[in-house]
């Protein structure tokens, strides 16, 4: 792929999409008779939340069985897919019908009366393990970590998910699970990068020769890679664990920016980041912290950027003044529950960030809304 492809990927964030599958209504509220008790209506609404586990259940089972990979080859009947996968015919039909109920596959009637199931082209890469915006890693994380963790949320609420010494904990998963998950959340990047790039340009930020980006905890490097497409003279360094950097380097080559992306293996807590970066980027790093470690991270960030440099933080940032019921705030508060379930971290508020910024001699200069994140920009005070 070329730099043009990188720019095209970022631009795809502007394309409107249909509501996500988990928003497919399963209760027909128009069917309630006049005068139905409020408790009955409320029970129906809450039941729809309680059966939310059905969606990942059928999606992840289909992924485990290889159903999506098979449907990428073309439409199939339940009988045809069962033969390909070596699965039970009736059970395969039930699974496919479940996927169609969530608008994951399209169900049509063939000329012989049998149902035919089609995986929309737009979803082929979403389930392919090597797709740039694949959810395969997220599914693996669910299987290895999340399903078990959510069952123990009540216990973490009782004890605050604290260590045996009573201290708040960082949210940490094994390197193996991190490696799986990191490729499963690339899809977050394009709208974030598009908004960030437009705001940087609006503030007069340019990326002339010699401009340096430091991507702390870069993961696959997708944010750096897309920003390199936005700013053709920018150079980027991505810092992450030893087993992650090769993933970022390979993706940089795939996206045609390997010459300007330099992966660095290291521990971002204990290793020196250097100084003089023009842009320091932190994506989904702060929500894994405790308030104390977040403050320490901000202090280190302040030292890493040049006098006129910018710190950009993309995370699940609650804006208490931005409207209590906004879509972003609602999602972030649920995301905080997922952090609690898996042992630590939080969705911190704008006020929290402002305090950490002030302690580090920084000030907030912008706060941007994106579909599942907010992007905070800061400079030296």
TrEMBL record:
Pfam families: Dimerisation, Methyltransf_2
Residues of the O-methyltransferase C-terminal domain: 211-362
Entry-linked InterPro entries: COMT-like, COMT_C, COMT_dimerisation, SAM-dependent_MTases_sf, WH-like_DNA-bd_sf, WH_DNA-bd_sf
Gene3D superfamilies membership: Vaccinia Virus protein VP39, Winged helix-like DNA-binding domain superfamily/Winged helix DNA-binding domain
UniProt KW keywords: Methyltransferase, S-adenosyl-L-methionine, Transferase
UniProt protein name: Methyltransferase
Taxon lineage: Bacteria, Bacillati, Actinomycetota, Actinomycetes, Kitasatosporales
Keyword Chaperone: no
Organism annotation: Streptomyces albiaxialis
Domain O-methyltransferase dimerisation: 48-119
Domain of life: Bacteria
Keyword Transferase annotated: yes
């Amino acid at each position: 792929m070329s730099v043009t492809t990188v720019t095209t990927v970022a631009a795809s964030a502007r394309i409107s999409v249909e509501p996500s599958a988990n928003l497919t209504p399963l209760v027909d509220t128009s069917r309630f008779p006049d005068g139905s008790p409020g408790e009955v209506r409320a029970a129906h609404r809450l039941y729809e939340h309680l059966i939310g586990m059905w969606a990942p259940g059928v999606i992840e089972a289909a992924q485990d069985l290889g159903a999506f990979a098979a449907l990428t080859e073309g439409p199939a009947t339940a009988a045809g897919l069962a033969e390909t996968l070596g699965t039970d015919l009736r059970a395969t039909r039930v699974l496919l019908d479940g996927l169609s109920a969530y608008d994951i596959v399209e169900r049509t009637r063939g000329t012989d009366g049998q149902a035919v199931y089609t995986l929309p082209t737009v979803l082929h890469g979403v389930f392919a393990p090597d797709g740039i915006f694949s959810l395969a890693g997220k599914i693996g994380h669910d299987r290895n970590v999340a399903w078990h963790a959510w069952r123990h949320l009540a216990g973490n609420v009782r004890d605050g998910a604290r260590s045996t010494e009573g201290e708040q904990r960082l949210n940490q998963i094994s390197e193996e699970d991190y490696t799986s998950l990191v490729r499963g959340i690339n899809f977050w990047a394009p709208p974030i990068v598009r908004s960030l790039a437009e705001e940087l340009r609006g503030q007069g930020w340019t990326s002339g020769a010699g401009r340096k980006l430091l991507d702390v905890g870069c993961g696959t490097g997708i944010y750096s890679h897309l920003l390199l497409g936005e700013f053709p003279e920018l150079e980027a360094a991505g810092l992450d664990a030893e087993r992650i950097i090769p993933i970022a380097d390979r993706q940089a080559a795939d996206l045609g920016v390997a010459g300007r992306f330099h992966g660095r293996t290291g521990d971002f807590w204990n290793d020196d980041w250097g100084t003089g970066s023009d842009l320091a980027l932190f994506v989904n790093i702060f929500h894994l912290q405790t308030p104390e470690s977040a403050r320490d991270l901000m202090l280190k960030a302040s030292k890493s950027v040049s006098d006129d440099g910018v710190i950009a933080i993309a995370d699940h940032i609650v804006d208490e003044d931005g409207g209590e019921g906004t879509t972003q705030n609602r999602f972030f508060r649920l995301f905080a529950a997922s952090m609690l379930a898996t042992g630590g971290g939080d969705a911190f508020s704008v006020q929290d960030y402002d305090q950490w910024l002030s302690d580090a001699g920084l000030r907030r200069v912008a706060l941007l809304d994106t579909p599942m994140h907010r992007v905070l920009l800061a400079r030296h005070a």
